[in-house]
């Protein structure tokens, strides 16, 4: 088993090499705030970054599994571990 951790999986075309696709999504405001804090940029630039990516709705359609990440890292890790136990 090989796991790709690719933030822009669909945009890069790497999804064609995957048998199963897990997508992690978060609400727009949470995503926006995380980018602003992580990259130390203003909201306007963060919005441009988000708009340059495939929308969550499209990513969800292409995914086999969707994990919602509106909480903390611990919660995300638990969800990913539960998914890994199923494969």
Q: Which word captures the global form?
A: globular
Mean of residue pLDDT? 94
User: Can you tell me the CATH superfamily?
Assistant: P-loop containing nucleotide triphosphate hydrolases
Please give the largest β-sheet: 2 strands, parallel
Spatial arrangement of strands, main beta sheet: 1-2
Keywords: ATP-binding, Kinase, Nucleotide-binding, Transferase
Pfam family, one: CoaE
Protein name: Dephospho-CoA kinase
EC number: 2.7.1.24
Describe the structure in your own words.
- InterPro entries: Depp_CoAkinase, P-loop_NTPase.
- The protein has one domain (15-85): Rossmann fold, CATH 3.40.50.300.
- Helices cover 52% and strands 9% of the residues.
- It contains five helices and two strands.
Keywords:
mainly alpha, two-stranded parallel sheet, 5 helices, 2 strands
Give a short summary of the structure:
This protein is mainly alpha-helical and 87 residues long. The protein has helices spanning 9-12, 28-39, 43-51, 56-62, 73-85; strands at residues 22-25, 65-68.
Write the layout of secondary structure elements.
Blueprint: H1 9-12, E1 22-25, H2 28-39, H3 43-51, H4 56-62, E2 65-68, H5 73-85
Parallel strand pairs: 1-2
Helix pairs in contact: 2-3
């Amino acid at each position: 088993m090989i796991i790709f951790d690719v933030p822009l999986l669909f945009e890069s075309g790497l999804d064609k090499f995957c048998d199963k696709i897990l997508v992690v999504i978060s609400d727009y405001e949470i995503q926006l705030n995380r980018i602003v804090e992580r990259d130390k940029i203003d909201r306007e630039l963060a919005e441009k970054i988000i708009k340059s990516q495939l929308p969550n709705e499209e990513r969800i359609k292409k995914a086999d599994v969707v994990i919602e990440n509106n909480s903390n890292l611990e919660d995300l890790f638990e969800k990913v571990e539960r998914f890994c136990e199923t494969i």
